[in-house]
Design goal:
By secondary structure, the chain is of the alpha/beta class. The protein contains 11 helices and 15 strands.
């Protein structure tokens, strides 16, 4: 049978600024449940709630209908015993922080409970109310920090995976540790294959010496970053041009540089168009035929040397 909801005082901070913190105490011993509630209520504060469940089934049913910000869990319940209790609760609500509060003083069990995701492991009778309150504060604080980290990692992962440019993490030897889909597509290679390679393996032989020299300067700390355009070798043997920006990664508190991050823009098509433009310009300027170019108003905007020779008009005489 589910216990009563009681207004309780906690100074552990709210999970949401718009809702009170809710602590679910899962304990079948009425005396222990009252004591835990007293510990919580003795902490000055306001606008927080405590709920109680006497069995694991009741706790899971309660959590399906309501939000629990933290669970104080006894491992010995009428319908569940030992670490299975924690495992079942975590499986049903993996995102809710759990503090184990049990009568079993077993170091191996405590370590396993922490490994399975419990925020803390307290033994009944071995601490006072302040210990319980401190455990709750710590659990909530660590859970909030972990949640913020997961959100940050998820955002970074989304940016990494969906970036239009290639993004790469390399080690001190230039081996590829992480490559996003854009870079893999640029080289026509899966990430698993790139993990066995370094930048030297996919760089055109004509560019390897120059790239290796700059990379060595990055790892030696002589420069923090560099930009360059280089040629990459596609899996099909063709050449891809990439505009590369590479930056060293300095770990906090460390002087040795162990990693670098690179952003690569595939400029192969741009280079192809530029080559075509250069070729067209060369042909235009050197052909023996007199040529001129007009705009949409039929005004002359460019003439080649042969035009001047054949007509006698200098460019400045006819432009416009």
């Amino acid at each position: 049978m589910l216990g009563r909801h009681v207004a309780a005082a906690l100074t552990v901070g709210r999970m949401s600024p718009d809702a009170p913190l809710t602590v679910l105490v899962v304990e079948d011993n009425p005396g222990d449940a009252r004591l835990v509630r007293t510990f919580i209520e003795e902490d000055p504060g306001s606008d927080h709630q405590v709920a109680q469940a006497e069995t694991l089934a009741d706790a899971l049913a309660w959590m399906r209908e309501r939000r629990a910000d933290i669970v104080l869990l006894d491992l010995s319940l009428p319908d569940s015993l030992g670490l299975e209790t924690l495992a079942r609760l975590r499986a049903a609500s993996p995102s809710v922080p759990v503090v184990v509060l049990t009568g079993t003083a077993d170091e191996a069990m405590a370590l396993e409970a922490l490994r399975q995701g419990a925020q803390d492991y307290l033994v009944k009778g071995q601490g006072d109310g302040e210990l319980v309150r401190r455990a709750i504060r710590y659990a909530i604080g660590r859970f909030q920090a972990d949640t913020a980290l997961r959100v940050s990692e998820a955002r970074f992962r989304a940016l990494f995976e969906n970036a239009g440019a290639g993004v790469i993490l390399t080690d001190a030897e230039g081996r590829y540790l992480h490559c996003n889909p854009a870079f893999c597509a640029m080289l026509g290679r899966p990430e698993s294959e790139l993990h066995a390679l370094s930048f030297r393996d996919v760089t055109h032989p004509g560019d390897v010496e120059r790239v290796a020299g700059l990379y060595a300067r990055i790892m030696a700390g002589e420069i923090d970053s560099y930009d360059m355009t280089k040629r990459y070798l596609h899996a099909d043997g063709s050449v891809r041009w990439g505009r590369l920006t590479l930056t060293s990664v300095r770990e906090e508190g460390e002087t040795t540089i162990r990693h670098a991050v690179a952003v690569v823009e595939d400029v192969t098509e741009k280079r192809r168009l530029e080559d075509h433009m250069r070729l067209a310009t060369t042909v235009f300027e050197n052909t023996g035929e007199g040529l001129f170019v007009t705009d949409d108003k039929r005004r002359i905007i460019h003439v080649n040397p042969a035009f001047t020779v054949q007509t006698g008009y200098a460019a400045e005489d006819v432009l416009g």
